[in-house]
Amino acid sequence: MLTTVSLVDSKHFLYEDLPTGIREKKTKIVLTVRNPKDTAVSFFNHVKNLKTFYNYDGEFDDFFEMFMDGDCEYGSYFDYYLSWDELLKDQKKHDVLLLQFEENKANPVEGVKKIAKFLELDITDEYAAQVAESTDFGKMKKKRENTLGQEMFRKGKVGDWRNWLSDAQSGAIDKVWKARMEGCTYQPDLN
């Protein structure tokens, strides 16, 4: 059975903004999510590394304020998750697999198996391990060295936000999460 799938990154399109065909054909969607603190840091570095595309030359503190206010590309991170969470809670509307970055980093083989099961693909443990090894962040980054795409890869780590966010910035995300996101399907470890 041929299965069609769309991958939706942790800071990009709202469901309503996906191509009409994906929604109409009910194409299976893999939604990746990531801790908002790591997302802010990753997004900042993405924007800084692609200076010619984004034309942003500010500091992290300034970007953080834009991130919190939703004044960056794709809008509010928090609105984004709230929008997708509605869909996650009503799988009859559309089949969506929630794939947490942190869990996938901790056990990539299980992540591959989870995706395969969602897509109704029968794979062996060996094949899952092979896919996990082939898609390892370090391998993909090394493969892109000295190419136009090398700016897209930085660390691929969990918890790097601790090296970037001040206590006040970390607390600001905690406060918004508690006020707006407490009932969401995805609950990151904000500590």
Main attributes of the structure:
disordered N terminus, 49% helix, 10 helices, mainly alpha, three-stranded parallel sheet, Rossmann fold, globular, 191 residues
Secondary structure layout:
Layout: E1 5-8, H1 20-24, E2 28-33, H2 36-49, H3 51-54, H4 60-69, H5 77-88, E3 96-100, H6 101-106, H7 108-118, H8 125-134, H9 137-143, H10 167-181
Parallel strand pairs: 1-2, 2-3
Principal-axis shape: globular
In this structure, how is the largest beta sheet organized?
3 strands, parallel
Give the structural class. mainly alpha
The DSSP helix count reads 10
Give me the oligomer status: single chain
Strand content: 5-15%
- Computed over alpha carbons, the radius of gyration is 17 Å
Mean pLDDT: 85
Highest CATH level, the class = Alpha Beta
Please count the beta strands (DSSP E, at least 2 residues each): 3
Helix content: 40-55%
Question: What is the CATH superfamily label?
Answer: P-loop containing nucleotide triphosphate hydrolases
**How are the strands of the biggest sheet laid out side by side?**
1-2-3
Find the CATH topology: Rossmann fold
The total number of structural domains is 1
Alpha carbon gap, first and last residue: 43 Å
Write the element-wise H/E pattern from the N-terminal end onward: EHEHHHHEHHHHH
- Low-pLDDT parts are 1-11
The CATH architecture would be: 3-Layer(aba) Sandwich
